[in-house]
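USER: For my understanding, would you kindly supply a protein sequence with its structure tokens?

ASSISTANT:
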Amino acid sequence: MSSDHAQLQIQEALDAFTRDAQAVAVQLSDRSGASLAISGDLFRVDPRRFAASLAGLLASAQGLMRPLGRDQVDRLHVILGDVQLLTASVQPGFFLAVVFDVRTTLGVVRWRLDSLVARLTLLMVVDSGHQTKAPISDEEIENLFS
């Protein structure tokens, strides 16, 4: 399987999830904050900055949970007024962020997210011989603090 073929299948999986779960958007990122794929309506958000901010949020959540004996944060749910955010670990080093609103429910998003995580994990394992994550650049790091 070529890396381009895997990327296309990942994009198709995200698009189907966004449609079926009626989510606003979903983004696949790596732990460094690099956005790998995005689907939906995050048109007002820079995907790289969003992914990097989420990576920081997850690192902070993991830091909070470590004293409680939890080394890994698999899911994080944040309510931001009329918009909600649900994150999920896909594989070590990769996570999904789902943004959703009143068009759907947390239950529907969670249920569909389990299937998406399983599908993406399979796609990424099959394509593990290819480079699927991009390193975060110095410019992206600087943009986080500007």
In short: The beta strands are 25-30, 35-40, 75-80, 83-91, 94-100. The radius of gyration is 15 Å. Helices lie at 3-21, 47-65, 106-126, 138-144. DSSP finds four helices and five strands in the chain.
